[in-house]
Structure formats: structure tokens, C-alpha cells
Amino acid sequence: MREALIGWQAVPLPPPANRRAGCCATHEAGQRSTMFLVGLSGGIASGKSTVVAVLRELGCAVIDADVIARQVVQPHLKAHQQIVQHFGTEILLENGEINREALGTIIFSQPEKRQLLNSITHPEIQKEMLKQILKYFVLGYRYVILDIPLLFETNRLTKFMKYTVLVYCSPRAQLSRLMQRNGLSQEEAEARIRSQLPLDEKRRFATHIIDNSGERESTRRQVLRLHSHLEDSLDFLWARLAAGTVVAGLGGLMYLLLRHFSS
User: How much is the pLDDT for 73?
Assistant: First the structure.
């Protein structure tokens, strides 16, 4: 349920009230085409939600694949109907919504069931994620952060990312946090962790690492440094200069044409 891929859609919304420069919309001509994507991932209980909270404070555009995964399986939607057909009504709550804990227990212990679930949900998740990407593109955002829990497990989306960020914590901290957060036994928590790539292995695939093993303030400082790096991306700068040159050239041409026809 937590795995997600990019899909498609775009519904322009009013710009957020307090944008910062780094992740937010710009209004200079030609800059919409310069938007790039940043993939954000972690491991279960590694503290990714803490990092996302800081990014949102900074005004960054963050698309949460896990939220979308919940939305596309609401009652009466296509994915919901297919899940009930394959997994039975036993995984439903009294209000008709899917019991994520019950379904999670099934897919974590049965890889073939997890693959089946992904084949049902991925197409719908894809559509919704691309809708939101296009929304931010239309609004002129510089970059968009895609919060995808299993970004490195699927390895099919990293090629679309300019940068990939891993929220890391030590194995001991991860196990302890998961047991405490979910009320799991050590054996249950270890089984959940084993269903994903080890964080130490994911480090090899990420362009940036945020170590969330320590205090929250330390994590926050790392996020601020990342934000500054993305804001100052030279790729974006050169695209801006190129766009500015094109606009200036068109402006000069229009000026000459106006002088020609007015003389």
C-alpha cells in the first residue's frame, strides 16, 4: 500500500500564502519549463515525516504518495472495488473503508499478495501524482518534492529525479522507534523492516542523506542545508539565464518590428 509511482493529472489551485523562494513559484517568463523533481524516501520509522514537516514550513511543494495511496482506495472507487474482489470483505472496516492494518498484515507476510495489491493501486496512484506535479508546474514552482516511501525499492522513478534524498537513522534507532510507535514485538518489527531495503543499502542510491539518528534540531539543520542547496541549483540558474536570453531576444525583435511598421 505504501509503494507508489508517478501518474497523471493537473488541477491548478491558488498559490500558497507564505511561499519562500527555494521551492516556490516564480513569475519570470519561461521559468515554468525549469522545474525539476526531488525524490524523498526513507525507511519505516526512520523519521521521514519529521523532514517533510520542515520542508512544508519552508513553503516547499511536497507530494505525499502515501496520502494519495489512501485516497485512491476510498469506497466506491475503482481500486477499492478491485481490492475487495481479490482480498475479500474481511479487510473492510464497518464504514466500508479498507482496514489498512489488516491488509498490511497480509501483504507483509505474502509477497505475491503485495505484488497483486501494487498492480491494483499503482495505476490510480500514478494518475493522481502526475496531476499534482502538473499543478505545481502550472503554478511555476521551481521544484517539487515527491515523498515516496519505497522510491529505492521500485527503482523505476529515480531516473526522473534530479536529486534523491534519503532520511536515514541507525538500525537500532529504527527498530526501537517502530516497536514503540506501532506497539509491535521485536519479531514483528523486524519483519516489517525486512520487507524494505535496508537503510544502509539505500544510502548507495541517494544523492543526499539526512541523518535522523540524533536530536530533532540536528535533523532540522540538515534539512535547511538541503533546502539551500536546491534553491541554489546551478541547473536551475542556467535554465533561467537561457530563458531570459530568449525573452530578451524576442523583445528586441518585437521592438524592431514595431519601429519598422510605425515608420
Answer: 96
